[in-house]
Each structure stands twice: as C-alpha cells, then as structure tokens.
Write a structure and sequence with these properties.
This protein is an alpha/beta fold. It contains four helices and five strands; from the N terminus they run βββαβαβαα. Strand 4, helix 2 and strand 5 form a beta-alpha-beta unit. Helix 3 packs across helix 4. The longest helix has 27 residues. It is globular, with a radius of gyration of 14 Å.
Length: 143
C-alpha cells in the first residue's frame, strides 16, 4: 500500500493542472491550476507543492494522438518532463493521458458548469483523471 502522496500534472502551454493523491494512494483529488509562466516558474511552484504535501513522486500526463503517435504537444511535454527531472529530487514518470482533458470537459458539461468556469477547471480535473487512472493501475497490479 502506498503511504506517500503522488502529484499529477496535466501540462499545457497556457495552464498546468495539478492533482494529488490521498496518503493511501487510492483517491486522486484536483488541487489547483497554475498559469504556465515558463519552466523555471512551474518547477518552483511544483517544488513548493511537493514540499507542502510531502509528495514522493510526480506523474506527468503524456499527450499522444489516438493512434499512439507523438504529436507536437507530446514533444513539448517531453521537453518539460526532461527539464522537471533535472530540477526535482523525486521520481518523475509519464502516463498516457489520451482522453483525460476530453473526459474532464465532458464531466463538467454534464455537471452544467458554465463555459467560463470550465476553462478554469478542466486542467486540474484532467490532472485528477490522469492520477486516478495511474493509482487504479497501481492498485490493480498490487492486489
């Protein structure tokens, strides 16, 4: 059983969604959205969240085309992941995030959240979905 928190990142060129696990590694919850003001700024914000929440791992969603091929956004995200790995002293892993943002938006639409509010929520909800899928996979494999 996991006893340390895990932070998830939904990286975007404008906004970055952040989610965190509970201490048991069972439930993901959205945490916040950070404006993407550059890699250094993001790394500082993420380091502060890691310290504040005693996180032991970071999971970054890796966007790919439906076919599984890399896209321009995949390459941008991989560059950020490489940067983050150099800046952080904890493990940084990637996780397939196909459908996470679409699922987040769909859920927000079903909840009748206004378009303006959806824009501010979708990234941290996408990070929550990425993390929940990751946690579910870990927990299934550890049964």
């Amino acid at each position: 059983m996991i006893t340390d928190r895990i932070i998830a990142i939904d990286y975007g060129t404008e906004r970055v969604g952040i989610a965190i696990s509970d201490a048991t590694g069972t439930i993901a919850q959205s945490l916040e959205t950070i404006r993407n003001n550059g890699e250094e700024y993001l790394a500082e914000q993420i380091q502060a969240l890691i310290a504040e929440n005693n996180a032991k791992k970071v999971v970054v969603g890796l966007p790919r085309a439906l076919s599984g091929r890399d896209t321009e956004q995949t390459l941008i995200t991989l560059k950020f992941i490489d940067f983050l790995k150099k800046k952080l002293s904890i493990e940084v892993i990637t996780w397939d995030e196909r459908f996470s943002t679409k699922e987040a938006v769909r859920g927000l639409i079903e909840a009748d959240i206004s378009r303006k509010k959806r824009k501010n929520l979708k990234d941290k909800i996408a990070a929550q979905l990425i993390l929940q899928f990751y946690l579910d996979t870990l927990n299934i494999n550890n049964v």
